[in-house]
């Protein structure tokens, strides 16, 4: 592989844009096809399909074998609330290669001392989230318990195609949340996208255990087509 | 910090820019219970430093050996490991799966 090609592939990933590297197995010839350029490629249909599945793989066309290295943007985890659970969640999520950002307008919580490994934005979610452009490779978790902070973030997540939305709080808390979101015009099926109470039921007690259950649920949503039972 | 697929291709680029000779191995096909999915990478330099994996550790040694040849002559190679294969028996893909690995030099 030419270094320039490798460099271009890495640049696309850093910019959160999908791309496919096409390798002609017999000749070793390679080309990079950016998502926006797929329609004009001779293998457009195959590239589209592999990208949709998010899977690399071999294909055959005209008696030639091509390997398609599919590169989707890194999963982004937007954590609303610079709380104790988030402190445990941030390093774990980084460990599974998620791109983590913490958002909390309360400056006492949102400090770099509390979150040494990840970006922390001491701003309101409704100001921050539009800048991110929540895409289908994004998960949003709302952990503040405070409707003033959580609700606007959930509203934006529901209007996006993000793959996971979770909200912390008991069933009672969630009932009240459902009511507020309904009043705000969201439908039942919109609201059903929210995982609440958040996290897999592993009987978690401590903040770190709750972080494990949340991360488990996010990964389960990301990999749902691979799960044996869903 | 352990290596993720993101880090591996970034490392390949960084190593090459440092002037190291580098090869990238990619799992291109799997059959049966293969430990790493298609698209997984292993990056290797001329001093056999490596990052990433193409199996659960079963065939990495053999891939690294082949990668040194790829680094030396610049010719890409397709390697196959599996239970029916003599080499695989030696290197031991114990899960019983078969994998095909493409090894190329970064120029």
Walk me through this protein's architecture.
The complex is a heterodimer of chains A (230) and B (107). With 230 residues, chain A is α/β, with parallel strands linked by helices. Chain A contains 8 helices and 10 strands. Chain A has 2 domains: 3-71, no CATH class; 76-226, NAD(P)-binding Rossmann-like Domain (Rossmann fold, 3-Layer(aba) Sandwich), CATH 3.40.50. Chain A is 38% helix and 20% strand. In chain A, helix 3 (84-95) packs across helix 8 (207-222). The two termini of chain A are 40 Å apart. Chain B is built from 3 helices and 5 strands; from the N terminus they run αβββαβαβ. In chain B, strands 3-2-1-5-4 form a 5-stranded antiparallel beta sheet. In chain B, strand 2 (41-45) and strand 3 form a beta hairpin. Chain B starts with a helix and ends with a strand. The interface between A and B is medium-sized, with 22 and 24 residues.
SSE topology:
The complex is a heterodimer of chains A (230) and B (107).
Chain A: H1 3-14, E1 19-24, E2 30-34, H2 44-53, E3 57-61, E4 64-71, E5 76-80, H3 84-95, E6 99-103, E7 120-121, H4 125-132, E8 138-142, H5 147-158, E9 164-167, H6 171-183, H7 188-191, E10 194-195, H8 207-222
Parallel strand pairs in A: 5-6, 5-8, 6-7, 8-9, 9-10
Antiparallel strand pairs in A: 1-2, 1-4, 3-4
Chain B: H1 5-17, E1 22-31, E2 41-45, E3 50-52, H2 60-73, E4 77-81, H3 86-91, E5 98-105
Antiparallel strand pairs in B: 1-2, 1-5, 2-3, 4-5
- Distance between the first and last residues' Cα of chain A: 40 Å
Main sheet makeup of chain B: 5 strands, antiparallel
How many individual β-strands of chain B?
5
Percent helix of chain A: 25-40%
Mean pLDDT of chain A: 94
The CATH architecture assignment of the largest domain in chain A turns out to be: 3-Layer(aba) Sandwich
DSSP helix fraction of chain B: 25-40%
What's the CATH class of the largest domain in chain A, please? Answer: Alpha Beta
């Amino acid at each position: 592989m030419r270094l320039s090609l490798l460099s271009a592939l890495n640049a696309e990933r850093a910019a959160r844009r999908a791309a496919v590297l096409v390798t002609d197995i017999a000749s070793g010839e390679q080309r990079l096809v950016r998502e926006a350029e797929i329609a004009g490629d001779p293998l457009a249909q195959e590239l589209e399909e592999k990208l949709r599945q998010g899977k690399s793989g071999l294909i055959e066309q005209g008696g030639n074998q091509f390997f398609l290295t599919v590169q989707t943007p890194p999963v982004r985890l937007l954590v609303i609330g610079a709380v104790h659970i988030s402190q445990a969640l941030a390093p774990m999520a980084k460990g599974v290669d998620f791109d983590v950002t913490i958002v909390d307008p309360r400056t006492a919580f949102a400090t770099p001392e509390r979150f040494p490994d990840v970006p922390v934005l001491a701003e309101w979610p409704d100001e921050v989230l539009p800048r991110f452009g929540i895409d289908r490779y994004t998960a949003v978790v709302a952990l503040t318990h405070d409707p003033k902070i959580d609700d606007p973030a959930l509203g934006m997540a529901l209007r996006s195609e993000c793959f996971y939305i979770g909200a912390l709080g008991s069933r009672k808390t969630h009932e009240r949340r459902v009511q507020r979101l309904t009043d705000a015009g969201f439908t039942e099926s919109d609201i059903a996208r929210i995982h609440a109470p958040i996290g897999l039921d592993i009987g978690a007690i401590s903040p770190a255990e709750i972080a494990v259950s949340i991360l488990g649920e996010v990964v389960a949503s990301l990999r749902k087509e691979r799960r044996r039972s869903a | 910090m352990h290596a993720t697929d993101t880090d591996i291709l970034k490392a390949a680029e960084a190593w090459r820019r440092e002037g190291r000779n580098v090869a990238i191995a990619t799992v291109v096909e799997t059959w049966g219970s293969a430990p790493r999915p298609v698209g997984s990478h292993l990056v290797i330099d001329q001093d056999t430093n490596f990052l990433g994996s193409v199996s659960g550790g079963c065939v990495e040694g053999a891939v690294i050996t082949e990668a040194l040849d790829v680094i030396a002559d610049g010719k890409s190679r397709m390697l196959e490991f599996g239970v029916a294969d003599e080499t695989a028996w030696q290197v031991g893909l114990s899960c019983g799966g078969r994998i095909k690995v493409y090894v190329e030099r970064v120029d």
